[in-house]
């Protein structure tokens, strides 16, 4: 690793969380009223701890979002609106992957292909370039990289170890072998170890097994992961195999990771289609962890596991059942911005 360029862990200090407001021109149109309630709850939770930067499609969407958030008594001094076009609201995958570059920042702008061409993503693929061109990021450069990579496909411990799933990266780049992909990721993201998971998937997930739905660093020596304790469930064998893989991984010091298995929610169906209700899709913010809640009895147990994994942080449930209708959850719709990347404070909104 170089000392100058570094990929910070999510638990490091942040200036804000970046999201995009759902509207009738996104895939949320059919159930817009339900998903808006989740976004309101999300912004309310974020602004308890830091700023929220809300991308809106136009002035009308901004006016509407501002009114909904204001009526929920959210601190609007911590909300900043930015107008830019987007196809959808999965900013974990279309937003910037930010490296610290000395006293500034480097925004890595990978190709976003709509998860391997499954959906149109022409506007989303331009989002980082447009936001950077608007000057909302402080002391930053942008590096365009002609390589398909989504933020949800990777997780870092902030100290040079990257965690990813072979299923996803192989699907995006079938012509590349593992040593090549490890080398390229390590070079771009300034990592010196890439740990690959062979197992793990969720029905209803169209990302080809993003790691942020399966296993996440909680500290350089700790991993929180989605477990399944129901032998009759179709996920049981695959998630048990993933748990065994995680147990076999070693830290940089050669020690086993401290592992925190998350409980398994009962199946949530939509017209017979299984939805991907993962508790691993949490978001770390300053002083807290925002946890996806699904209205299941496992919610309380998931909150307890996260409290054990993050003992210095408040665990804040956010109702996310509407999100999984479109195959993602809380982490998928957000992108944290490291401290110093944007101007913060009251009076911007």
TrEMBL record:
Pfam families: PAD_porph. Keywords: Hydrolase. GO terms for biological process: putrescine biosynthetic process. It comes from the Bacteria. InterPro entries: Peptidyl-Arg-deiminase_porph (IPR007466). GO terms for molecular function: agmatine deiminase activity; protein-arginine deiminase activity. This is Agmatine/peptidylarginine deiminase. The lineage of its organism: Bacteria, Pseudomonadati, Pseudomonadota, Gammaproteobacteria, Lysobacterales.
């Amino acid at each position: 690793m170089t000392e100058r360029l570094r990929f910070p862990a999510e638990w490091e200090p942040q200036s804000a969380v970046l999201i995009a407001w759902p509207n009738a021109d996104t895939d949320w149109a059919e159930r817009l009223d339900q998903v808006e309630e989740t976004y309101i709850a999300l912004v309310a939770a974020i602004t308890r701890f830091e700023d929220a930067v809300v991308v809106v499609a136009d002035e009308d969407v901004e006016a509407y979002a501002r009114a909904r958030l204001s009526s929920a008594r959210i601190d609007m001094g911590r909300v900043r609106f930015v107008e830019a076009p987007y196809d959808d609201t999965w900013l974990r995958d279309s937003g910037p992957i930010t490296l610290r570059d000395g006293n500034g920042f480097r925004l890595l702008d990978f190709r976003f292909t709509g998860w391997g061409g499954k959906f149109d993503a022409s506007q989303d693929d331009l989002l980082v370039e447009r936001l950077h061109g608007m000057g909302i990021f402080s002391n930053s450069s942008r590096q365009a990289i002609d390589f398909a990579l989504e933020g949800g496909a990777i997780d870092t411990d902030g100290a040079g170890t990257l965690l990813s799933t072979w299923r996803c990266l192989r699907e995006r780049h079938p012509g590349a072998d593992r040593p090549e992909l490890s080398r390229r990721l390590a070079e771009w993201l300034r990592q010196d170890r890439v740990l690959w998971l062979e197992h793990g998937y969720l029905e209803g997930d169209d990302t080809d097994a993003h790691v942020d739905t399966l296993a996440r660093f909680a500290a350089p020596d700790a991993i929180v992961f989605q477990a399944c304790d129901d032998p009759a469930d179709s996920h049981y064998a695959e998630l048990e195999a993933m748990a065994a893989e995680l147990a076999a991984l070693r830290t940089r010091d050669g020690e086993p990771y401290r592992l925190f298995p998350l409980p398994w929610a009962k199946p949530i169906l939509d017209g017979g289609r299984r939805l991907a209700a993962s508790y691993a899709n949490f978001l770390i913010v300053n002083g807290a962890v925002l946890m996806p809640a699904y209205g299941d009895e496992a919610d309380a147990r998931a909150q307890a596991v996260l409290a054990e994994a993050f003992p210095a942080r408040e665990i804040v449930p956010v109702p996310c059942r509407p999100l999984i209708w479109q195959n993602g959850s809380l982490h998928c719709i957000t992108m944290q911005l490291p401290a110093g990347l944007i101007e913060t404070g009251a009076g911007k909104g």
